[in-house]
Hints:
The structure holds two protein chains of two kinds.
Chain A: H1 2-9, H2 12-32, H3 39-48, E1 54-56, E2 59-63, H4 64-71, H5 81-84, E3 89-92, H6 94-111, H7 119-144, H8 156-166, H9 173-185, H10 190-197, H11 205-216, H12 228-233, H13 250-260
Antiparallel strand pairs in A: 1-2, 2-3
Helix pairs in contact in A: 1-7, 2-6, 3-6, 10-11
Chain B: H1 3-19, E1 33-36, E2 47-51, H2 56-66, E3 70-74, E4 76-78, H3 86-89, E5 91-94, E6 96-101, H4 102-105, H5 113-133, E7 142-146, E8 151-156, H6 166-177, H7 183-188, H8 202-219, H9 222-230, H10 236-249, H11 254-258, H12 264-278, H13 284-288, E9 293-295, E10 309-311, H14 313-318, H15 321-324, E11 332-337, E12 341-343, E13 350-352, E14 355-360, H16 361-369, E15 373-377
Iron/sulfur cluster binds next to helix 8, helix 12 and helix 13 of chain A.
Amino acid sequence: MARAFVSCINETLLFQRYANAEAQDAYNNLRHADERSQDGFLLSLLDDFGMPASIKKNAFELYFSDFIRYTGRLRGPQWRLVNLLYRGRVTLAKGEIIQILAEAVRLKVLSGLPLKLSARMCEELSPYTSPLKHALSQVLLRQEDSGPVVLEACPPCIKALLMQVKAGKNLSHPARFALTSFLANIGMKADEIVLIYQMSPDFDYELTRYQVEHIKGSSGKDYTPPGCSTMETYGNCVESDDLCRRISHPLSYYRLRIKRGTGA
Amino acid sequence: MNARTKAFLESKFREYYHNAVTELPPRFRKREWAFVLFDSAYPKLVMRRHKAFGSQKELYAYLGAVSPAHVYYSTACYAHPSATRMQDKKWEGADLIFDLDADKLFTDSVPQYALMLTAVKNETDKLLDFLMNDFSFEDADFSIVFSGGRGYHVHLREARLLTLGSHERREVVNYLTGTGLEPEYLIKRTNMVPVPDDNSCWEIRIRSWIERYFKRLSEMDSETATTELANVKAIGKRRAKMIVDEMSQDSTVAPLLQSKLMPLAAWKSLIREAILQIKVNIDVPVTADTKRLIRLPTSLHGGSGLRVTPLTLDEFRRFDPLRDAVVFSDRLISVKILRPTTAELKGETIKVQQGTTELPEHTAVYLMARGLAEYESRRFKSDQK
Ligand code: SF4
């Protein structure tokens, strides 16, 4: 029933919240229901999700591709393949396996939404769904109005890129993309962004303007800036600080800082 | 490149495609194909995309008819490979691809082609070592391909990998480049007792690198060793000397791990150095891209005339691209050299100066494809009288 509600409201943000909630439920159930979290039960669950595992010396062993499929969103060195892989497999504790299962639940729920429901059915549900819809649109509105740009609140990676540009260095393509799309997303105007690049030795007004506009979405596309893991891959995650540990996307860093007040 | 040269190259390529047995990727009906022809725009690359072939015969007929300069197919399989819009193709999965390119290895100066090829082959060897040990793939799981240009491609088609998204593929790349390795995390994780000489994870790779490092130091005279060690950040000259003295009594690393001589910061910078030496220099976006076009093995590379050569592991070990990827004959033809240059095909180093000269067909094709020569005639000048 809940899924039917969510499907009729048909809003991506809601799908995500809903899937998160189901994943959280699954996590709690597996954690706390003791006799159910017997190893055998977990193994058969893993099997159901298409990632056959084995148990060796009290620890679970997963094939690496099953592991990375469900851990991309999880932060911290204990989730990175680079710290774990041994002969094609990774070894995990029970608690970690439960976290992976919860993530599998989340993705499964998410990929199943929205349910294919008839318009009539949604019509019938509308007395219940329309107040929800209204409340949700308020939330979305608030999110879109991102307020003034506060450079102070940018994460270390973005600050470092800004410094480099100011020091007259040329940025690599991925770095330039990261910086531009980040600034555009926190509400900086195209003109202001172009001005920032003025310091680059290879500055070309027309070209920069074109690139910025393109990334900003005036040509109909909307680019989100790369997440922390992508930044890391291209070597653009530098001087990450304590707040970085709690987020997986530079934009979340920015929003958190804004929420807390930038003095934090 | 003038029209005569293009026509000549095209005819040579056609000859090749008539006789060659081309190797097709699995599920080739589900793949998008793309071609660059020796057309009026060439050598500017104008790609003809979104082709699909229902049978091997169809593809062969096409290759024979147009004899393209470059042939690519998609690493992805699609329900509708010939749809022109990406979202209509319906992605079903993609091979996992690794691209090793000499361009990535030499960013400052560009050495000679032969040297570049040797360096990139070594890099490929490193990748294969990671794939076989850390990832536990067997040689039947991957195919190695010389790109015909400046590098190698490695294709993995293990079923469980095909549906990995771009993000997950990047996690694999991060492994190969040692990105996100936390020296501290590695130092703390002491529960795993490694089997000696088993290069199957970063931890052991780093440990054995460090052992080799100290072994090398212990074989130097103490002054050189001290200078070398003092270069490691956070050690310093005084401490370096103490460590070297200690080592001369016992040349294994074990006592060092216990002693207070090496501070944590020193271990960390040593580990960083180890990572730099061990990691594979791989082209990141290629592996992360789930909709890439890649050269067809057994086709010809229009920029060199060399064969995009599929290799088994054994063949790879013995492979010399400048000998084994050459397909054209050594019959002499006459070309006009545009810029002085050197070519080293088939074990023969040929230095040429500007002007008209006669060269073996393979070298002539190579120079023309690279834009360094234009076609003159097939016959000896002296014959034409
Ligand atoms: S962790 Fe994320 S936000 Fe923090 S510096 Fe790295 S990329 Fe930026």
